Amino acid sequence: MAGEQSLKRTMASQLADSVRNDIVNGKFAPGARLNLNDLSKHYAAGLSPLREALSRLSTSGFITAEDQRGFRVSEISRKELVDTQRIRLELESIALRESITNGDVNWEGEVVAAHHRISRIQKTPEGGRLALDKDWETAHHNFHTALLSACESEWLMLFIKTLFECSTRYRKAVVLSDRPHKRDVANEHQNLMDAVLNKDADQACALLGAHYNETTEFILASMNEGEK
Question: Any idea which GO molecular function terms this record carries (predicted)?
């Protein structure tokens, strides 16, 4: 019995990861109802671990549980976007300062390597098709993760991971792939890396803030444009 319960919890964890990734990557639209029978077929999973997985996700903001009506993907809003980005910046600034303090030459090498990978595929500004490209998304995530990887607080990094996924969900949900943008994201990443390697925490945090604020403003503009 104990082994069966453990297996069920493991399956629920795996399903929660799969559903969350699909929400973040836009496979389930904001506000979409999540039918358990349909999801069971899609993920080839039983109803019990699937229900547990959705219940877990309802505590992280990706899914809304409705009394007697099941689950649906949480809606997006300007208020949540601004609040999420504000808290994300505050937490990442703490982690970035700690990384700069703790980081050794191996950490610096990881940052340089992650930047090299994203610079090799970063040929157009974020907000164009590149922002929706899977390879770019992976490289982008790895670069920002590398910047913070010398932070030793597991709780802090857990919260940051959730907020990063929320930000990605907003970009994929509302950014128009053909919308023009004059932003030079490659230069933003270069300047951010330079400040980090120079151990200039104040400058690095200022650049990180400007980087995220540009993204927030672009998403808000895309949301406004989508409502016209």
Answer: DNA binding; DNA-binding transcription factor activity
